[in-house]
Amino acid sequence: MIALPAVAAPMASLDRHGSIVAIEPYAPNIVRVTIAVDPTLADAPPGDGPNAKSDATGWSHRTDASGDVFASAALSLTVAAQPWPKAPTQMERYFAPALPPVSVTVKTADGQPLTTMTGWSMAPHDVTGEKTFKVGASFDAPADEHYYGLGQNQEGILDLRGRTIDCKHNYDAPAGETVCVPFMVTNKGYGIVWDNASDTTVSPGLHGSTNWTSNVGERVSFFIIAGKSYDDLYAGYAKLTGATPLPPKAAFGLIQSKARYTSQQELMDIAKGYRSRGYPLDVMVLDWFYWSRMGQLDIDHTYYLDPKGMNDALHAMGMHSIVSVWPRFERESRYFNFLSAKGWLLKDKDGNVVDGLPVRSDRAGALIDSTNPAAREWYWDRIRDNIASQGFDWFWLDETEPDLVPDGSFYSIGTGDRYHNLFPLLHTESVAEGSARDRPDKRNLILCRAAYLGSQRNGCLFWSSDVHSTWEALQRQVPAGLNFTASGLAYWGSDTGGWQDPSGPPPLHPPLVDPAGATAMPTSYTDYPELFVRWFQYNSFTPTLRIHGQRPGTAIWQYGAAAEPILAKYLRLRYALIPYLYSLGRETYETGAPFMRGLFMDFPNDPAVATIGDEYMLGKAFLVAPVTQQGQTSRPVYLPAGADWYDYWTNRKYTGGQTITAAAPIETIPLFVRAGSIVPMGAQVQSTMEHQPLESIRVYPGKDATFTLYDDDGETNAYRNGQDSKTLLEWNEAAKRLVPSGKSAVKIDPALVKIIAPE
Known about the structure:
globular
């Protein structure tokens, strides 16, 4: 049965003829609804993920003919009165639901409807020997409602309407790994946080209804977050599940990785190769199988002779390091027997340790049970003493789905089926909390392959997993990333060029990049350098820019002489944009709003953008339209209504509300800037360890504009205590003047201000 934390204190518990409905506000615009037949379960707190305390300040409760009405300054919620149930008809004896009906209607404070929960369900079944229920709820779905979020789904479509989403972590999903973050936002001014960590199916707007069904549970529990804008919804999500920390500034630069660097010498040669060529680089990554045995949590000194010296050398070059740490332990590893004796490994029904996977010939290693707080603490202590002590800066927690599927097995807190989606939150918590305790002055960063409600508070940079190295995979990344960030987790990226060994069908068109000299792929994959260039252009405008993959070489000079100068151009542009991007990261820390944004977030009054998943905003200034087709040299771009737009490359100005054909020769990604934008640009640096002066402040006139330019030391947690610099830049359109102000305002040389004149 469900584990019960300390007793919650709902504002009210209502009895609808045996269905118990608990109403629990968390803020004026956030309210939790819990329904069960057991009053104790109805009154119990939410599961893991939400970490806020309930707060009924400003809420009222009254009863009238419609039912029980709960109201605040932001919304009202009515639990409908239910008549005494009549005797069932002959047909109803067979087909009517057994549960007493419950209807919950949510409106804005001024009476505008948001949503209505029209019914709930509990269907008994056995799961892993546990007598439990499938639980679910249904909501009305107007014909013009659109839905976004629910984590990562790589089926290539942005709007979730009319689809059925299997919201569970699944590395082997056919289109690419799925990740469940059960938070969905709509264009109707509300979002739903579904409070159940088991495998969940969601069908938004299908046949006039939105249905949620979870495989294991004894109650229905969900939160409604209301807001006048999408950013209000993300502020509510952050309040409910935790703020997104500001990553180290290095996270906004280039992160260079490969599966895998076979020796210390190979890794250092790549780092030196960037410096000798004058290319900026911030982080070198040491991926898997650097250890002597999986689960040793050590470094094989046969191939990595002096890891401490390696890290010292990287630091001296202005670089940081990330090292991959896996949650698996081979039977022959030094900690296996200890962990088994402690009961800190995933077990089967007979209490035996689950070892390896039954699929993919991936048969070695047991999973640490990160649902156990003692196991989490032990795990971090070993990372700290065995690996961080060698000078590594940050950690890559791979296989956080986990890859050893827990269904049919047992964690310390219950069945893997009940807690199918919970592991990535608790596992990354081990490093987040341990690092905060033992390295309080060092800002945390974790590369994470999966997520759950609240994972953003652990300092995760997420990526889309081991995707194929194909044009189809690239095309699927764009809407996948937009739904992920729409789930309230801002830092998402993908392996530039794909992770799998490069292999693809023959190109349909002559390759736009000469593959001569490329060593990253087989000679038969002639269009792979073109694919890598397009992927790199795209990732240059995502929250993180990381090169990774299972190929002979991944550094930017290993894709041929024709590709290298194009890649260098975008790498330098990425670094020029770091003042802009870092300021956006600070804004996310303060507001919870993502800065890689589907067009629907910023143009809610333009119905044309509701289903556009191949363009997006990066901050409030840039509209990015990646090229994802082989041989493509132009593409249609819709410019949203309500704004004018500048072509970043030509400064040509367009009126919004139209589709244009944008030029996209191989050296160009279509990129537009909204009129009324301020974009700070930095001077070129080798890494973010260097002080980066401003090279210019670009103003794209057309409307009054503001931008908060932010900076701090980039590495410590002092930013949390106000040790930073903020400059409010205000553009006055009528006066044609930029005025800086605010705390620790940077003095702006007027010569840096470049007012863009439309062509």
